Fold Putative deacylase.
Amino acid sequence: MDETLRSHAFASPLTGARLVVLGGVHGDETCGTVAIERLRADLESGRLALRRGELTLVPVANPLARQRQHREGERNLNRSFQPDPQPADYEARITNLLCPLLARHDVLLDLHSFHTAGAPFAMIGPRDNSGPLEPFSRAREEGWLALHLGMECVVESWLDVYAARLARLGRSTDARALAFGWGTNEYMRSQGGYAVTLECGQHRDPQAPEVAYRAILASLALLDMAGTAQSPPRPPRLLRLVDVVDRQTEGDRLLRDWASFDPVQRGQPIGVRADGRAVEAPCDGVIVFPNPQATPGSEWFYLAVDSERRLADPGLTPVP
C-alpha cells in the first residue's frame, strides 16, 4: 500500500502571503481532497493564475486513514500535532513531515467535514492574549479570513474547552497533557501564523466539496494571491464552545438525531448513559459536533453559546 504524503507547491515571482491548504486530515472526510484537486487542476491548466505569494496544497494529509476509509489510521492525526523525535505510530511520522511544511507558511486553511447533518461552519482560535494556554497575536487576521469564507456560523474556544475537560476528568493540565489537544491549527499558531478550520458539511453532502472549493478561492482572493476579493457577507453568528461531553461506553446513546447548532435548553435531555442516567444540557445553547458513533472515552458532543466577540477588518476595526 502507498502511504506517501503528497503535496503540490505553486510560487509566484512576486512576494506575498504563504498559504497552505490541507485536506484529508481524517480519512473519511473527502470534500477537502476533491476541492484541492479541482483547484490544482485550475492552476495547472491556466484557468487560475497565482498572482503573488506561495501556495501549497496537500490533498490527503493522512494517507493511511484514507486507504482505510476511517477517521484515523492508527490514531487521530489532529491530536498531539507537534514534532516527535521518537515517533511511535504512523500519525506521529506524518506529523513530523507536516509540521515543517506548516511552519514555512503564514496561513493555514484546514478543510474538514462532520458525521451528522448540519450547516457548514468555520472554527477559529483564541483572541489575542499572552496567557499560558495559547498565546496569540493574530486574532484579527484570523477572524477576517473566517468572515470572508461566508459561513453562517463561526465557532471559537476549542483549546479552552479541552483544558476544562482534562480538569474535569482529574487529569493533569500541564503543558504536556494539553499538547494532546493540539491539532494543525494550534501548531500553526505556535509558529507565528494563523489558521482557520472549515467544516464543510456532512461527510457525504454533495455540496461539501463546493463549499471547500469556494473557501480556497475566497482565501486566495483575500490574501491578494489570485482572483478578486469580495466584500464579506453579513456577519456570521459567532459561538463560543463552553463544554464537551464524552461518550463513556458503547451503551451510551443520543436521544435523537442531533445536528450541529440545534438549540437546547438547560436541563434538556440530550442523551442517556448505558445505566439509564440522563445526560442533560448544563446551560442554554446549541449542540456542536454530535457524534453518535464516538468511541468510548472520546468526545460525544459539544455545547456552545453566543459570543460577544466580533470579526472585523484587522486594519480598521478593533476586535474586543
